[in-house]
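Usage

Read records sequentially. Each one opens with the input sequence:
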Amino acid sequence: MLSGCKVTTKGEVNESPTPDGGKEVVTDNNPVEIEVLGMSSQQDDINIIRDQLARNGFTVKLNVQPDYGTYKAQQDAGNFDISVSSWTTVTGNPDYAVRSLFKTGGDYSILADPEIDKLIDTAGTQTPEQYGETYKQFEQQLVLDKAYIAPMYISRKAQAFNKEVLNPASVRISKSRSLPWEEVDFNDTSKRDTQAIVFQSTIPVLTSLDPIKGNDGSINIINTNQYVRLVNLTDDDKVTSEGSLSYNHAIAEGNSEYYFILRDDINFAKIENKKVADSGERVGADDVIFSLDRAKNKNSVPDHRTYTLHEHIKTAEVVTDVAALDAIKVSGSSETVKSALEKGLDAKITELVSDKTQSSSKVGKYQVVKVTTTQPFPQVLNYLAHQSAGIVSKQQVEKINTYEVDKFDINKDIPYGDQNTVTEGNAYNNTLYTSGPYILSHKNDYEAIFYKNPAYMKGTKHEPKVSTIKVRFIKDADSNLSALRAGEIDLFYGITENKYDTIKGDSKLELQSIPSNAVSYLLFNTANRPVAKSVDLRKAVLYSINQDDFIAFYSGNKVKAMTTLSPLVNTGLEVKADAAKVKEHLAAYKASK
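and closes with the structure output:
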């Protein structure tokens, strides 16, 4: 653990006469200690936070961890007062921006507040025209009334690449969706099968390659490219079937039933002797149903990290009655679901089959999956575009996960997607079956090697262009930028705003930058520290944080935030740094001790 302290001089108890001269009042000027947890990659932000708190009467202890794994371990152990946190709403919908983070039992939540829970659930059922006021009440409670978080800023999303190597037209930047690897191509297309495109990551320890067991920066982009989903997001956060497992999708009247007509041109990829192979198993409805059933079930795997994203799924089932599709209207339309699903298909639906090996789009034999939600919930489509809704092989996962979930032993049971099974060494035994455009073959602390799925939409515009992808593990931003400029990597994903000018000054590099859904904030310990019990102490920290300092440091390329909702819903609320309020709340906290 890397750590450091900024300690102010020892405080003294000042005694002064009261105005009536007859009594004395004791003013406690002793600074309050606050421990700030973060990662070394967040050092610039941590330094700003330290200085802001120190100016407002705190003694700051820093707990700076080298990577996400050790940071998370410290957070889980409660070894912090405030942790430097960030969240990107990669599904493009506001429910995702709050449910996992702040709802009781959420995948990443350390809160348990019934009032917060009620507001999240209410807003989740509302239309955009309705949920603005509900989310305003949520932000009022979360920040201003109870100070569970202290906002820092909204970031821009940026990436830079070597335009002498990569074709600029092939490199997309999306507001929420991770970079789709299958589209990236060389300027010199003759290199597609002989040379790897080299990306980068700052996190070499992968949470899990089972898509439902991780939802963090170590695996989001990896699992997004390893597993196909029922739908995708466009670059501006619209739900689309383009490039997904579905040719088309439709919402039925009532907004509780969702239909997907499946492609028949994707097989699972597997690894044999560190080389990619076609498993021969088609991705089909049974895999979709299996994947969604386990995604929504908290007890389907130990340490399930994403079940709250899918708790609105009631059932997933295969449809075999063509007439049923003709009897159902699309929501808000006179069009039938069958007609909506047939749009753009070479062959209309003549038969629906339950056996995935029997489907053939050439002759009109398809598989259709129906997803029913527990209540009207159109935002379910955004969650189905998330990497945690990636489609896994029912056959392979059941073959690997033979343990009993409630008796899982981390020392002997090896679950599907365990990163040790793809890490070079004695534990290497790659059992991945991936439905997406790429599959991870092997990794070490230096890099990970991915190969093109040989049976992924072959012959279509979505077939991966390049045979091999390498992800180089480089922990800090400056080293990543140096590697890009030296030609050691081809694309740097996630460039901070204070590096833009350096990119613009290099003639061989191209910068792509757009507004993002990424928000950075301080999260208070709600379990085992004084900040957990004292709203006054939390508010003293809250009003110490000046967002203008961050914006100035990043040359005006950050935007003020209120919560993780801020890029999606403008509630009109704002929190401003206020030294007088800090003093007031610190005094109230000390008086209550």
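Summary fields computed downstream for this record:
- The domain at 166-489 is CATH 3.40.190.10 (D-Maltodextrin-Binding Protein; domain 2).
- The CA atoms of residues 163 and 431 lie 36 Å apart.
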